Amino acid sequence: MYDEAYDSYRFLLTIDPQFFSSRENITASNLTVNITPGMLPPGMNGEIPFMSTPLFWILIGIGVGGLVISGLVIYHIRSRLPEHGTGVISRSSSGPVSEKDLTHIADQVMKCYYGDRNILIQVLKLAIEIAREGREGKAVGTAFVLGDSDAVLERSRQLILNPLAGHKPSERLITNADMRENIKELSLLDGAFVIREDGTVEAAGRYISIDTSKVKLSKGFGTRHVSVAAITQETRAIGIVVSESGGQVRIMAKGRIIFETC
Ligand SMILES: Nc1ncnc2c1ncn2[C@@H]1O[C@H](COP(=O)(O)OP(=O)(O)OP(=O)(O)O)[C@@H](O)[C@H]1O
User: Fold this and answer.
1) What burial class does residue 244 get, using C-beta atoms within 10 Å of its C-beta: 0-12 exposed, 13-18 middle, 19+ buried?
2) Whose C-alpha in 30, 58, 200, 259 is 20 to 30 A from the C-alpha of 86?
3) From ligand 1's centre to the CA of 256, what distance in Å?
4) Interface ipTM
């Protein structure tokens, strides 16, 4: 009786899991009582769980791969673009820089700069004028390193004798109209301007002589940009670079470009 029942239903019958765990003797009578034809307990119906199928692992692989690729793309975009955006002032613009433009840029830069906002605006204005006007009909490139000037001077050297040496601090203020004209002339020289937070121009023709290996600017920038980025990484200064080749004005802080004009 037991053998017949079990053999004829062995692919269809369900054995109650509790049945074998109980200490009762297995007898033909209680076996038949606990066998329910056609009823399969949950999880024992012969289907392979989805998590064990190759399709599941393929989908997991696609998901993880997608996340990794998205992360790499975002990292690449972030390392290429300025952190705070691109400016509104185009190289082809002419005329004076509007207060609105300057305010917009200064707002962005002051997030990374501890110095005087008005002095910052004066330096920006001058840099933008140099980028737009050039000198003697030619494009001019130069760089301003603003703030933390003792630390900057320690990490740089004169390329030529400092043309500003011997002039009174009051004559060397960036807010002084004569000084601004002088800076435009001196921008033809190699090297950078070093400017104190209070607007005193300490030096022109300064060569930044520090290790640039930790700078993470995207490829394509030359030594002017890279060395200014490096000095902003090592000091609390910000850098304002006028590119001779592209005409953009780029503002740098903490080793990164934080703003650039179009
Ligand atoms: N370490 C430095 N410190 C100060 N000025 C530098 C330094 N390196 C280069 N310069 C100045 O930058 C000028 C241009 O150099 P380079 O072409 O390599 O820079 P760049 O970043 O491509 O700038 P640009 O976009 O203006 O061409 C040099 O002639 C020199 O006057």
Assistant:
1) middle
2) 200
3) 17
4) 0.98
